[in-house]
Each structure stands twice: as structure tokens, then as C-alpha cells.
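Q: My labmate handed me this sequence with no annotations at all. I'd like to see what the chain might look like in three dimensions before we decide whether it's worth expressing. Could you predict it?
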Amino acid sequence: MTGGGKDIGGRRGLGSYFRLLGAFGRFSLNRELAFRGNFLMKVLLEVVWLGILLLFFHTIFRNTSRIEGWNEYQYLFFLGCYYALEGLIETLFLENCVEFGELVRTGNLDFFLLKPIDEQFLVSFRHIDWSTAPKVVIGGALMGVGLWELGEPVTAGRIAGFVVALLSGMALAYSFLLILASTAIWMVRNQSLMELWWLFSSLMRYPRDIYEEPWAVMIQKVFTFLLPALLVVSVPAEAMVRVLDSAILAWTVFAGLMMLGVSRWVFRRAIRSYRSASS
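A: Here is what I predict for the chain of 279 residues:
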């Protein structure tokens, strides 16, 4: 069996996909609320993890005023940006991509390919993990505190650059996840490859400026131009609280669009290679 290759906006209008996404969200929320204890525990763990992160952050800046040019409140904004973006990725994509290999192994992917809807959309958004959504709010609060303490004017240009860079960063992260998930069709069990996602997210966690030391320049170049993990959080944060090189912003947008195209191609190729559980 191979996928039918339905295009978004083909058989269904774009509005139908937004309505379907809303239905996924409502269903997932009802499922989470059916087990309120588990939901609250997951939220509590996220808050505890944030507390540890902030304690580490406070300890560092108690002993220094800057880290590679980032002052305390600029870095607080960066931290909030990372937390919010990671929350968006975990809420929308991560669980779905991680579970894709199980769909292939059990043959349940067959049922997804029979639906009159784009397979990539269905695979990517079928579950919304509401327990990680508070991270988006917390990250937004940290960014707000950082901006308030910096006391610098927030211009329309900075906001526009931030939004464009943030969307591009999300596109990069999603594309990398989708490519890793797609390998399950060829490898069936791809847990080791999914570990690369944690490497990717670890690189997202720190500003790209820390890799400007002579011994780390090659790392910066590889993860800026070849596998652009360092752009995902750094560029949106720099667009808002520092002076951002327009060339880096342009490259981030281009890389995000390019990776979306590449991940779409890899996913479609993987679906064409898929053989159903009954074949």
C-alpha cells in the first residue's frame, strides 16, 4: 500500500484543516481532563524543571555580568524564548512524531492512509499534548520580564523580525522531527535516530555566540549552515533584544522554508515505500 498523496488545500480547503485541528485540540483536551491527576502532575513537573533552570540561571549571573555578550535580562529573554518554543513543539508535534514508528510497526498507519486528508497533516497533528502547553505561557512571561527589565523600546520592526524568526525556527524544528520520524518506515525501530532530536534540542538551548571560540567555530558553522539547530532560538531572541544581522535572519527564513520542503519530500518518499501490514 502506498499513500495517496493528498495535498493540503487539494480535496479540502485550508479552512477545513483549521477546523480539523480545532477538533483534534478539543478531543485531546477532553482526553487529558479524563485523567486530571496525571495532567496536573505533568504540569507540576514542568514548573519544577523551570525552577531548577532559573536557579541555575541566577547562580551564573550572580558571578558574572555577561555571557558572550548577553547580559542577564537578554539571556532571560532567550531562556523564555527557548521555553516557549519548546512548549509549542512538544504540544503540537513531538508526541506524534515519536509515536509514528509505533504506527508503522503495528500496521495502524494503514488507517491513516485511507483517510481523505493529507497524511502528513494527520500524522503530525492527531494528538495535542495540552500538558506541555503551560510552558508556552511561562516562556512568554519570562520574555515579558526580560523586556521589562531591559527597558528598551519594543519597535514594530523588532516584533516583526521576532515573529518571522520564531516561525522559521519552528519550521526548522518540525522539519527535523518529521525527517527523523519518517525513517521509521525504512527502519521500523528508529529509537536511536530519535535520540538525535535530543541533541538538536540541546543545541537549541544555548546562544550561538558561545561557539565563537576558535576550537568551536566548526561546530557553529555546521549547526548554522548544514544542520541549522543553532538558529532555532538564538535568531528570534536576537531579533528582539540584540542587534541582529539581517543576513542571518534571511538565512533563517530560507533555511526554514528549505527544510519544510526537504522534510515534505522525505515524508512523501517514505509513504510511497510503505507496505501495509496486510501486504
